[in-house]
Amino acid sequence: MPRVSQDHLDARRRQILDGSRVCFARYGYEGATVRRLEEATGLSRGAIFHHFRDKESLFLALAEDDAIRMADVVAEQGLVQVMRDLLAGGDHPADWLGTRLEVSRRLRTDPEFRARWAERSEQLTTATRLRLLRQREAGNLRDDVDVDVLTAFLELVLEGLVSHLAMGLPAAGLGPVLDLVEETVRRHRPGTA
């Protein structure tokens, strides 16, 4: 039997994650049945679960994939940029939002999921904190507030934005709000407005 290349396996895994993201966003965790996952990915259950132990492992991998993407943006451009991308319609924002909401719901209702997710969620917090520390060292970040407090502030703003969008409230006009959030964490130099 011929061996399947790592590139092929990686592409198949990406196909499963991309299709599953749409399915979980549309139907939620419980509604994303194996049949719906098969339809969304275009693959059989055998192919899907060859790559992922079970539906929860698939969902965690998807959420982790999104968290890694966000952490990469945070490391380069900051958490406010993640929020700007969400407003601008960056990479599959509706599907990302659906996944994020499902993570939030499961964190509230599923202690086992909460324990497994805790290991993964630290990536975003760490990336945000490190970015803020670099900004402080460069003299761009206010120094009268602890970095951990600023990190928590930005994460709360992100959660508030996600909730706002999830309720179907308008996103138009939120750019200036994010400008204010960004300005709040910046260091103000004498003589600047």
UniProtKB/TrEMBL annotation:
Q: Which PANTHER family match?
A: HTH-TYPE TRANSCRIPTIONAL REGULATOR RUTR (PTHR30055), HTH-TYPE TRANSCRIPTIONAL REPRESSOR RV1474C (PTHR30055:SF229)
Q: Highest taxon of the source?
A: Bacteria
What species is given as this protein's source?
A: Amycolatopsis iheyensis
Q: Which residues form a coiled coil?
A: none
This protein is called TetR/AcrR family transcriptional regulator
Q: What residue stretches are annotated with the HTH tetR-type domain?
A: 10-70
Q: Note the InterPro entries from the entry.
A: DNA-bd_HTH_TetR-type_CS, Homeodomain-like_sf, HTH-type_TetR-like_transc_reg, HTH_TetR, Tet_transcr_reg_TetR-rel_C_sf
Which sequence positions fall in the DNA-binding region? 33-52
Signal sequence annotation = none
Per UniProt, the keywords (alphabetical) are:
DNA-binding
What Pfam families would the database entry show? Answer: TetR_N (PF00440)
